[in-house]
Amino acid sequence: MLEKALSGSKSYWSWVFFLLAVVGVGFVCYLIQYREGLRLTGLSRDVSWGLYIAQLTFLVGVAASAVMLVLPYYLHDTKEFGRITILGEFLAVPAMIMCGLFVVVDLGKPMRMLNIALYPTPNAILFWDFVVLQCYMGLNILIGFTVLSAERKWIKPPAWIMPFIYISIPFAVSIHTVTAFLYAGMPGRHLWLTAIMAARFLSSAFAAGPALLIILALIIRKATRFDPGREAIQKLSLIVTYALIINMFFLSLEFYTAYYSGIPGHQHSLGYLFFGQHGYNALVPWMWASVIMAIGSILVMLFPRNRKNESVLAVTCAVIFIALWIDKGLGLIVGGFIPNPLEQYREYSPTGLEIMITLAIWAVGALILTVLYKIAVGVKEETGGELAPH
């Protein structure tokens, strides 16, 4: 099947070479950072996690969203998702690879990452985060290629793959839950010290991931002879709508807890993010833009006629994706460090080098996704998009 990725139109190869160029420029920037150290970034003693780890946190959710297709298709035989499930599974693979790359560039010296494997510490949440992320990526690669190979031959997937499919469902939930525990277990960071951190992570994941998948499905329909299915896209749009509503409800709970309780520590980070504190307000426009985009998207998606209009749906899903990236990436991660435990305000701003390296890693993910989707769509076109028995 890999040979399908080696043939394509001029548009396909232009896209591939563009991504390779972005990766090349970003790699040069990373070599500079590797030589000079993290002092070239906007990170500091007070804000030790920035743009890199924000991407990791967001992308774990994108990967976890595959469960919203796998669960209904394999457990409840929702046939509408049969055409699109492979796209969700293959979306999880580059998302997990990008997560690993963002950890590598954030560490400064990538060999430090080996300490997790060489000196395992089962009492550390970071160790379990490493385990579940690697296992989930491996599961999606195994399941995706095994099922796709069976579909190409028009045969039922082998029986041995079904336990792995069932195992991937709790793993999808666990990767984001364990990642949330990394933050919620830090007592000195009031913004993260909440019992619903994992729930917030999952709700945003089940909105952002399917929103991206809808956009990708619409692009595939337009650029290829494979139609992922209108019914599947419409069902995904419902999932996005309700997940986004739940996510905004959880955010309102954080405001209630912080301000009704009157506990200063819980108020400071939220106050900094949304209203500014002591003249520090770099993230205020970003956070309000996120809230306005999210609420506006909910108002659009609540009406069936808007969801059925695929042009409106595509734009709205893009807005949702950006809104949740701001909230869960920039806001949640950076805001957790401001103010520091001594109630001092040290703002963070990513440097051009950080931004270029980040774009390069996103380009790596886009390149891997392009190759995987080229293979999957090639098989789907070969079989006429018809589903093999499962």
Highlighted features:
390 residues, globular, mainly alpha, Formate dehydrogenase/DMSO reductase fold
Characterise the protein shown here.
- This protein is mainly α.
- It has one domain: Formate dehydrogenase/DMSO reductase fold (Up-down Bundle), CATH 1.20.1630.
- It contains 14 helices and no strands.
- It has helices at residues 10-36, 51-64, 67-76, 85-107, 114-118, 125-152, 161-184, 197-223, 230-261, 264-274, 284-301, 304-308, 310-335, 352-382.
- Helix 2 (51-64) packs across helix 13 (310-335), helix 6 packs antiparallel against helix 7 and helix 8 (197-223) packs antiparallel against helix 9.
- The longest helix has 32 residues, at 230-261.
- The protein is globular.
- The two termini are 20 Å apart.
